């Protein structure tokens, strides 16, 4: 299946015009997931998946802050209540669901990629980010992201 890269859109009113995420989204503050708006879900989408990943983390594979599965194809908003509405998966804090930014102090700005994937089949269980990418790459119809920046 050819990857479509034109329809799916992801945006967030919680990411400022300068790209910054507010302190309330940080792990050591209120730890509130930002609201994401999803539109243009392509035809044939069975389910959406969400992964928030920080490639700037000083770890070999970056740091995963949120995995979320079981998102119906007609969903247009994800946010603070999403862990209760859908199926939260593991993050690299060793927990399930949203875990906000917590970069090392003085490490500079980190980029938080909120990826939304339109899939042609449902995700079984709650895979890690890497398991999802390995097992469902062939099911991705389209993907897009919005990026937030945070530093301490």
Automatic annotation (TrEMBL):
In residue numbers, the region (Disordered) covers: 12-34
Known SUPFAM superfamilies for this protein?
PEBP-like
Superkingdom of the organism of origin: Bacteria
List, alphabetically, the Pfam families matched. Answer: PBP
Cross-referenced InterPro entries: PEBP, PEBP-like_sf, YbhB_YbcL/LppC-like
User: Where along the chain is composition biased (Basic and acidic residues)?
Assistant: 20-31
Q: Which family does it belong to?
A: Belongs to the UPF0098 family.
Q: What is this protein called?
A: YbhB/YbcL family Raf kinase inhibitor-like protein
> Which organism is this protein's natural source?
Phytoactinopolyspora halotolerans
Its organism's taxonomic lineage begins at: Bacteria, Bacillati, Actinomycetota, Actinomycetes, Jiangellales
